[in-house]
Design a protein that fits this description.
ligase; 9 helices; exonuclease activity; alpha/beta; 6-stranded mixed beta sheet; nuclease; 7-stranded mixed beta sheet; Rossmann fold; Metallo-beta-lactamase, Chain A
Amino acid sequence: MADLVVQRPEGLWCPPGDFYIDPWRPVARAVITHAHADHARVGNGHYLAAAPSEGVLRSRLGAIDLQTLAYGEAAVHHGVRISLHPAGHVLGSAQVRLEHGGQVWVASGDYKVAPDRTCDPFEPVACDVFITESTFGLPIYRWRPDDELFADLNGWWGRNAAAGQASVLACYSFGKAQRILSGIDPTIGPVIVHGAVRPLNDAYRAAGVALPDTRLVTEVGDRAELRRALVLCPPSAVASTWLRRFGETSTAFASGWMQLRGARRRGGYDRGFVLSDHADWPGLLSAIGATGAHRIIVTHGSVPVMVRYLQDQGLQAEGFDTEYGDDVVEADAAAGNGEAGPDGPAAEAGPGGAAGEGGAGA
């Protein structure tokens, strides 16, 4: 029986449907799992994505021919039944379910199984073949509960505010920044965002996600407020002249990579908060198991380790070579208000030079 998804130079191709999933080269028809730059790129003729992702996709890609489906809604193209199901990664993220010729395949894109106030929760989808990421596919990666993490983050901010230091938290502008905003205590002080973060916040609010009030630094006239502020910005802004406006600061980076000893030190941050928009090791295994799939295809991250582990569990497992996360720069759209200053769109590079976790949205 022929495979429903195969590798091509343009990306992951569905032969009977003649469309691609998250292609990295321009194609006529693309199904997009989410709006991070290593999965959603300009130049495709037609885009299909989950309805909640529309605002972010249009903000990032501009004028595109975009068709959307509600989660669980199906469309049939060349005999392939396509439906999109929540991936729990970021706003609008989706798993792509394909049904054709008696087979069901699911391409997960990026996903996480932990709760997140800013997006629909991950939905296990039964299938014969499951295409999974493995960005954090090593047993060392195990995330703390959000209530513990945000208590730690709010405590750091509160101590800095009492000492008259701005708390500068580097994070990816799409997904991570909004998740942080949803969990902080805004009574501690003002919340300031980099110009690259604002349009993404607007898209989240337009989609009905509740976020606290935020301002740009240019909208704050009282310097005393800056010294109590939590500042969310892309990692590149921490090394730019933009940061000088805040005076004395304490800096931190929010990323799953902060689980690695030495990652914070190499980045030059005062603190590291282990916060990821990807599944940890237990999350990956639970998601894979919940599908009931007998065949697993691993796309990016710790591919050999995950493949070997799954094979040892008696599953048919293999890897696909993709360009997801392979030194892709997650470039934020400039806000157009001068906030980004001479730095322009902020390139979001994680430890080791990779942009984000698995390329984006760490």
